[in-house]
Design brief:
The chain has 234 residues and is α/β, with parallel strands linked by helices. The protein has 9 helices and 4 strands. The protein has a single domain, classed as Uracil-DNA glycosylase-like domain (Uracil-DNA Glycosylase, subunit E). The protein has a 4-stranded parallel β-sheet. It binds iron/sulfur cluster. Iron/sulfur cluster binds next to helix 5.
């Protein structure tokens, strides 16, 4: 079994429940949040897949349910998962780059995740997720944060180099409807990357059945290499 990725950090002293409780009362960047703080994050020490997206949109802010929109539908399709499995917190952790809705710019475009959030919270949460065998890096902010200098010049090039980041990471474009044109221009993504992603997720779930949750032993990592109708958030 390969060790945790460097981003996982050292074994934590504080329990995950305590960390998550503190995230829920975080107000660090409240002054910049048009709807106020409402952190949306899901994590369990038994999770096998970690999804790192961008930040909630207004729909997610209102419901508190991440990926509860058309972007989420497309992401679930890429993963080959139904909603029940996708929202099984014991299997799948959802820890975006920004936990709260950051608002829009003067042109109505999505503002990026608040820059304070991931540097503060990811190092406190990620070390608890010691069973994670694959981390999905959705969009440029997650790719920049987790890949650092290994990231290529742009998102398309980074996703195109997906084999370079396995087995720990898989960079993905955002599944927003706004990226439908990108998907048409880059048919290799759905032809090559999505089948590998589905296969690895299926493998992960089967491995989890063989190693019941919380059994105390880490199963091996995987083998091998909004708003309204689907914002780019999360
Ligand atoms: S975006 Fe992150 S840092 Fe800012 S208030 Fe929400 S949880 Fe805290």
């Amino acid at each position: 079994m390969s060790p945790l990725p460097k981003s996982a950090g050292a074994a934590p002293r504080e329990g995950l429940k305590s960390v998550l409780a503190r995230t829920r009362s975080c107000t660090l960047c409240a002054a910049h949040l048009p709807l106020g703080p409402r952190p949306v994050v899901r994590a369990s020490a038994t999770a096998r897949l970690l999804i790192v997206g961008q930040a909630p949109g207004t729909k997610v802010h209102a419901t508190g349910i991440p990926w509860n929109d058309r972007s989420g539908d497309r992401l679930r399709d890429w993963l080959g998962l139904d909603r029940d499995t996708f929202y099984d917190e014991s299997l799948i952790a959802i820890v975006p780059m920004g936990f709260c809705y950051p608002g829009v710019d003067a042109n109505g475009g999505d503002l990026p995740p608040r820059p304070e959030c991931a540097p503060l919270w990811h190092p406190q949460i990620r070390p608890h997720l010691r069973r994670v065998g694959l981390t999905l890096l959705i969009g440029q902010y997650a790719q920049r944060h987790y890949l650092g200098r290994r990231r290529k010049r742009g998102m398309t090039e980074t996703v195109g180099a997906w084999r370079d980041y396995l087995p720990d990471f898989l960079p993905l474009p955002h599944p927003s409807w706004r990226n439908t044109a990108w998907l048409r221009r880059n048919p290799w993504f759905e032809a090559e990357v999505v089948p590998v992603l589905r296969g690895r997720v299926r493998e992960m779930l089967e491995a989890d059945k063989a190693h019941p949750k919380g059994a105390g032993k880490n199963p091996p990592p995987l083998a091998g290499g909004g708003r309204g109708r689907g914002s780019r958030r999360q």
